[in-house]
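Incident log, support desk, overnight shift.

02:14 A customer reports that sequence design results differ from what the structure should imply. Their input is reproduced verbatim below. On-call engineer (initials T.W.) acknowledged and began investigating.
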């Protein structure tokens, strides 16, 4: 990349630099007399074809820069010293040729341009979106070529000095030639390309959505590969210097192997991939929706794993460096264990997951709608959200827990002995009876806990506002001690003003009912 300003937009690289001392030629001054002194010219787009032809019929021995973007120009004059030419959107141009000192040409979106040839000194060419372009010929010093969306281009010439090639969306291309000095190749969405040649110096390859591509050759210096949604690609292997691989949506991919330096792998939605293993330097793995994946093995340096919706994956464990695990919707997963450095775990909607253990450094657990029966012995866990875990009966031995949302855990009966708990939402825990020994609790939500023994809550901690009248009524009906507890709250004036009258009325009616039953 040059030191000039660079833009990469919609897969098209455009390079530009501030231009000083440009003479703008328009209808008022196009008949300049001293043209031999001009070296930088910008032609106004409001000039007619005849004016441009008249003006350019002169010779300009010193001209090195010409900007005629969007004008009606239909042919290029002889400009022997021209180094930079900007002629994009010139719909009248059909050929650009014979500019021996031209170094930089930007002719993108010249839709009627057919050929570019005999530019012996050019090193940068942007001919993107030249939909009629069929030939690029005799440009031996070209180093950067941007020809994306040139749909009529059927071949790329052999350019021995080319370092960067961007040919995104060139549907007419069937192959890429051997370009020995090429370092970066963008050939995304080239649907007719079936193979990539041996490019010995290539370091980055972007070939996503090449629907006919079946293989990636052994590229000895390749560091980064994006072959996402190459639906006919079956194997990726023997890329010994590859560090980053994105193969999302490669529906036919069966094997990922012999990538000894790979550190980052994104292979979501590879629906035929069965196993991921023996990637010794892998640090991050994203393999969600790999519906046939049944094992992830031998990844000793893995720190982040996202394997959501891998429905055949039965167990996850023995990753000594793993810090984050997201395995939501893994319907066959029954255990998560032996992850000594794991700090964050997402295992929501794992319908067969019954236990998690030996996670000594876990700090956050998200386990909505799991089959967990207990959450215990997590010495460093701080936050737990386990909404609607209907089989959960026990939450204890969690000395650092400060946030717990166990809403709709309908089998849970006791929440107790959590010395650092500050926030508790246990709404609609319909079997919950006891909430006690929570010395730091400051916020609690108890709506729908119809069997709760209110007297188990210390008076100073009870936020009675979070108990709706229906819950209070059912609690009183279920347990006489709740009646006594509420009477004590009323007598000690700790009820909020909006509940004093309804609770007093409830207590009066309950006492009358119970007295009637006694009689």
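02:41 Re-run completed on a clean worker. Output:
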């Amino acid at each position: 990349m040059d030191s000039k300003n660079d833009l990469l937009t919609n897969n098209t690289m455009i390079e530009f630099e501030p231009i000083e001392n440009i003479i703008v030629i328009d209808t008022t001054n196009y008949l300049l007399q001293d043209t031999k002194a001009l070296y930088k010219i910008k032609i106004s787009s409001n000039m007619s074809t005849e004016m441009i032809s008249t003006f350019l019929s002169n010779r300009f021995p010193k001209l090195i820069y010409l900007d005629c973007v969007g004008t009606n120009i239909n042919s290029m004059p002889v400009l022997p010293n021209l180094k930079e030419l900007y002629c994009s959107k010139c719909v009248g141009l059909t050929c650009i040729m014979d500019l021996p000192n031209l170094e930089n040409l930007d002719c993108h979106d010249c839709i009627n341009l057919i050929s570019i040839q005999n530019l012996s000194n050019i090193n940068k060419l942007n001919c993107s979106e030249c939909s009629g372009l069929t030939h690029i010929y005799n440009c031996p010093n070209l180093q950067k070529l941007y020809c994306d969306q040139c749909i009529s281009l059927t071949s790329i010439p052999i350019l021995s000095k080319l370092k960067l090639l961007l040919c995104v969306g060139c549907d007419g291309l069937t192959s890429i030639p051997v370009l020995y000095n090429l370092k970066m190749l963008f050939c995304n969405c080239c649907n007719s390309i079936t193979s990539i040649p041996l490019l010995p110096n290539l370091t980055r390859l972007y070939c996503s959505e090449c629907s006919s591509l079946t293989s990636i050759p052994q590229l000895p210096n390749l560091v980064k590969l994006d072959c996402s949604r190459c639906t006919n690609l079956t194997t990726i292997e023997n890329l010994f210097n590859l560090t980053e691989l994105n193969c999302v949506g490669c529906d036919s991919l069966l094997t990922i192997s012999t990538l000894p330096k790979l550190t980052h792998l994104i292979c979501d939605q590879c629906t035929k991939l069965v196993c991921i293993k023996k990637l010794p330097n892998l640090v991050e793995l994203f393999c969600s929706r790999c519906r046939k994946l049944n094992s992830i093995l031998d990844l000793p340096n893995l720190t982040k794993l996202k394997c959501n919706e891998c429905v055949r994956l039965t167990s996850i464990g023995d990753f000594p460096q793993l810090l984050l695990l997201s395995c939501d919707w893994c319907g066959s997963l029954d255990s998560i264990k032996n992850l000594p450095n794991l700090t964050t775990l997402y295992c929501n909607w794992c319908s067969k997951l019954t236990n998690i253990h030996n996670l000594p450094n876990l700090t956050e657990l998200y386990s909505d709608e799991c089959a967990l029966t207990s959450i215990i012995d997590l010495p460093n866990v701080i936050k737990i959200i386990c909404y609607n875990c209907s089989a959960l009966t026990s939450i204890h031995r969690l000395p650092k827990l400060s946030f717990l949302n166990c809403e709709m855990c309908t089998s849970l009966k006791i929440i107790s002995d959590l010395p650092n708990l500050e926030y508790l939402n246990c709404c609609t825990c319909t079997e919950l009876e006891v909430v006690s020994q929570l010395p730091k609790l400051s916020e609690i939500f108890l709506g729908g806990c119809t069997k709760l023994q209110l007297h188990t809550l210390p008076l100073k901690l009870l936020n009675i506002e979070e108990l709706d009248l229906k819950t209070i009524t059912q609690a009183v009906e279920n347990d006489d001690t709740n009646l006594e507890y509420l009477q004590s709250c009323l007598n000690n004036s700790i009820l909020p003003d909006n509940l004093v009258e309804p609770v007093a009325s409830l207590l009066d009616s309950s006492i009358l009912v119970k007295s009637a039953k006694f009689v």
